[in-house]
Amino acid sequence: MTRLSSLGPTTRSARPDRSARAGARRRLTAATLLGLGGAALLAGCTDDATATDPADPATLSAAEAEAVVADASLDAATVLAENANASVTTPDEWASDDVVDVALAGDAATTTGTGVTSSGGVVTISAAGVYRLSGELAGSVVVAAPDDARVVLVLDGVTITSPTSAAIAVTSADDVVLHLADGSTNVVEDATQRADGDEADAAVWSDADLTVSGSGTLAVTAHVNDGIVATDDLAVLDGTLTVTAVDDGLRGKDALEIRGGSVTIDAGGDGLTSDEDEDLTSGTVTLTGGDVVVTAGDDGVQATTDVVVTGGTLTVSAGGGADGASASASVSSDGETAKSHGVTAGVHLVVAGGELEVDAAEDALTSDGALRVEGGSLTLAAGDDGLHADTALTIAAGDVTVTRSEEGVESFAIRVEGGTVDVTASDDGFNASGDRPGTSSSSSTTSEAAGSDRARPTDMPTDMPTDMPTDMPTGGPGDGGTRPTEAPADGTRPERPADGGNGTASDPARGGQGGGPGGGGGSEADGGQSLVVAGGTVTVSAGGDGLDSNGSLTVSGGTVVVGGSRDPESAFDVNGTFALTGGTVLATGATGMNESPDPDASTQAWLQSNLTTTLAAGTRLTLVDASGATILTLTASGQATQVLVSSADLTDAASYTLTADGAEVATVVAGEAPAGGRGGR
C-alpha cells in the first residue's frame, strides 16, 4: 500500500478575483477588435503601428465603422468553429472495458483489482481503467494516474465526505470521467477548511479534462470555494447534478460544455464559468442541451471569451434578480461597483436556440464584444439592460421578451433582422450609444492583442446607412431651446432643461429645434452609433425614448410599434440621420423631442401629428385616406400626444384623417413634420 498524506502543494497561480477577470475580458475584447483583422480599426496608423495604438474616431471611414458592426454577424456555428474543441469522453469509448470494483467503508477502501491503494483516509487510483465505487468514505478519492491515462469513476451509490480537502481530486491523468450509475444516488462534500498549499479548492477538483455522464444523481456541496472544477475542460453529458457552492458552481477553466442532463446550481459566486484569459480559443461556455437552473450571487453564466447557447433550457437568477439590483452591488478591488449579470461573455455571446429565462440585478445578457440572437426563446428581466453589447448587437431570429429593464437593448451598433422583440423599459427601449469600439476603454489594450490569427469577416449588411453628415444643422427660425450642444462621450443621456429642449418654458410658441416643418436637425453630435430595423416585429413600451440613437436610425423593413414615452422623451430620439425606407412604423407617445424623419433620406412615406389632446392608454387609433378607406389601425400602449406612422400603403403628400376611438383628432399630410419638429437631417 502507498500512503498519500496530502494532495500536494500548489504550483498553480491563484485564481484572479472578479475585477481581474473582468479586466481580462476587456483585454480579450480589445484583441478581438484591434488584433483580429484589426486594420479596419487601426485607422490612421503607420506601417509600424502596433495594436496598442488607439484609433481616432475622426479618422474612421464608414467602411471601417461597418467592419465593427460585422462582428455581430458571426453565427453560432462560426463562433464554435473558431474555438478549441472541448475534450469530452463519451460512454461508448470505455463501456466495453473491464471494471474494477472498489468498496468504500469508513476511511478506507477494499478491492480485488489493481491500481487502487488506500491509506489514511485517502483512496488513490494510480492507473488507467474503469473503477466502480460504492459505499461511504470519510476521506478523499484521489486520481494520480499517468499523464496519458483515461480514468473512469463509476459512482454507484457513494457518499464521500472529506474532513481535510476535496472529496474527489484528480492530480494527474489525461481524461477523467465521473459516470453516475443508473438509478444511483451519490453525494460528495468537501472539508469546511483547507490546509495552506492545498490547490484542490473545490469539492470535485480535476487537473485533467473532466466529463460527467450517466443517468444517476450526484449532489455536490462545496464549503470553501467551487463545486466542480476542471483546470482544463469540463463537460456534462447527462445525469441529475445538484451543486451548492460558496463560490462558483461549475468551472471549466479552458471550456465548460453542457450537452444534457438536469443541472441545478446554487452558488455564492458565478453559476457556470470558464476563465481562461490567455487564449482566445478557450475560456468558453457552451450549452447545447439539458435543463440548467442557476441561482448565483454573482454572474449566472460567465465566460472570458464566448458563450454559445444552441439548445436546452437555461433559467438564471443572478444577484437576487432585478429586484435585488441595489443589494447585489459590490465594490471590486479596483474601486469599481460591480453588479451581477445573468449571462456575460468577454467576446461573443450567441443564442441560436433553446429557452432562456434570466432575471439579473444588472444586465440579463451582456457582452464586452458582440451579442447575437439567431433563435430560441428568451424571457429577460434586468435591473439595468435587457440585452447589452459594447461593440454590436444583432437580433436575426427568435423570440425575445424583455419584461423589465432600465434600457431594453443597448449597444454601439444595433441591428434587428428578424424574429419578435418585445421590450418593456423604464428608460429607453433601444439605445444605440457608447464609445466607438477601439477608441475608449477598449483601445487601452496591451501587446496581448497582437499576433492573433482569429479571423473576423468585414462584410456588412447592405442597408446599413453610411451617410453620416458632418455639417449638422443647428436649427431653423426657432432658437432650439436650451438643449446641450454636445453628447457626453460615454453615451449617457445629458440633463435636459425644464423646457425639454423644445422651445422654452415661458414661450413655447417659439418652437423647438428646427423651428417648423422639416426644420434643421438637433444640435447633439452624431457619435457614429447606428440602430437599424431591417425585419422582424419590434414592440416597445418605454418610459423614456422608444428608439434612441446617438448616431443614425434606419427602419428598412419589419414592423416597429412604439408607445409609452413621457415628456421630455418621445418615440424616437436621433442625433444623426433618421431614415424610413421600408417596413411599418406605428408609434405613439409624448411630443418630447418632437423628432421627425429626414425627408431626404426617407424613401417611404410617413406622417406625424402632434395632438391637441392627450390620448389615454388603450385608445384605438385609425388612419383613413381621402376616400374613407382604412389604411391602418393601432392602439396606444400609454398616454399619447404624438403619433408617427410609416407604411408602404401611404402616399407622400397625400392627406389623411386620424381618429381616436371613432372621433376625428387630426388631419395630416404625409411627409410634413409638425410645427417645431426636428427633421431634415
From TrEMBL:
Q: Where is the composition biased (Polar residues)?
A: 1-10
The protein's superkingdom reads: Bacteria
Q: Quote the biased-composition stretches of kind Low complexity, using this chain's numbering.
A: 458-474
Disordered: annotated segments: 1-23, 423-530
What InterPro entries does the record point to? Cthe_2159 (IPR025584)
| Composition skew (Gly residues), residue ranges | 511-525
Q: What is this protein called?
A: Carbohydrate-binding domain-containing protein
Taxonomic source organism: Flavimobilis rhizosphaerae
Higher taxonomy: Bacteria, Bacillati, Actinomycetota, Actinomycetes, Micrococcales
